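Exercise 7b. Backbone tokens:
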């Protein structure tokens, strides 16, 4: 079985920094510590309100990070313009509303089909690999393939928040979506709400290539340090696949 890559989202290191408008903690040096501990890629999300990652962070991450850099972006002209100039290798198209605490659901690719097609083509023309962050629904997968996305990132938040009685059903939805996405020729990533406790079942899903995990690793690093937090998560993913 091919290994599942761990991409670490550094947004919430910047959340702590922005809470005091200080220069620390620095998401860029934290990203480098993640890489040193075995992260396979680094992810960040530049939001409209700049609540965590700043434009300058994207530029500095691009300069410093040596693993693939994944930029999450909404479909607005501003964000697409920044993404096109960012030099990131990977792009994940996400929905964004100002009120949400975090990305709350998948992108409605069917409703935004033409825009997703246009943005995906523009980013791909720059050599980027584009994914759409979608709920594990057949319609969203089909629309992502129609729009020319290379990958989908399956939203695992509903699985992560499910009650014990609903967990199996949510995993089954993710399983079906993985098979369907693969059949449509899409690569499969997954993320949101993943923790040391719930990651194994997602890592074992068929065709999953990459997991994007942020909050749980940042939070865990407060207790055990970044090196141990990353190594623990890598080990949990590797054991699940073994
Ligand atoms: N994937 C996407 C598209 C996201 O928007 C986020 C949250 O920024 C994540 C993964 C990571 O989620 P979490 O921080 O809950 O691990």
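Sequence design result:
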């Amino acid at each position: 079985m091919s290994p599942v890559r761990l991409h670490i989202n550094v947004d919430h290191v910047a959340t702590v920094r922005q809470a005091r408008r200080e220069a620390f903690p620095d998401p860029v040096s934290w990203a480098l510590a993640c890489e040193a501990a075995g992260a396979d890629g680094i992810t960040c999300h530049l939001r409209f309100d700049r609540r965590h990652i700043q434009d300058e962070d994207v530029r500095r991450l691009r300069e410093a990070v040596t693993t693939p850099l994944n930029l999450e972006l909404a479909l607005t002209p501003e964000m697409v313009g920044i993404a096109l100039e960012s030099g990131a290798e990977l792009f994940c198209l996400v929905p964004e509303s100002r009120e949400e605490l975090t990305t709350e659901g998948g992108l409605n690719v069917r409703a935004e089909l033409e825009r997703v097609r246009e943005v995906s083509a523009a980013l791909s023309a720059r050599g980027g690999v584009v994914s759409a962050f979608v709920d594990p629904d057949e319609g969203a997968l089909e629309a992502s393939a129609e729009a020319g996305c290379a990958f989908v990132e399956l939203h695992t938040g509903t699985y992560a928040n499910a009650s014990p009685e609903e967990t199996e059903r949510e995993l089954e939805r993710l399983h079906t979506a993985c098979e369907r996405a693969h059949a449509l020729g899409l690569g499969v990533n997954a993320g949101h709400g993943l923790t040391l406790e719930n990651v194994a079942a997602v890592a074992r899903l068929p065709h999953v290539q990459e997991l994007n995990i942020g909050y749980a690793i940042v939070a865990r690093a407060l207790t055990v340090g970044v090196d141990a937090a990353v190594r623990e998560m890598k080990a949990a993913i590797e054991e699940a696949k073994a």
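Instructor comment: The chain has one domain: 5-241. The first strand starts at residue 5 and ends at 9.
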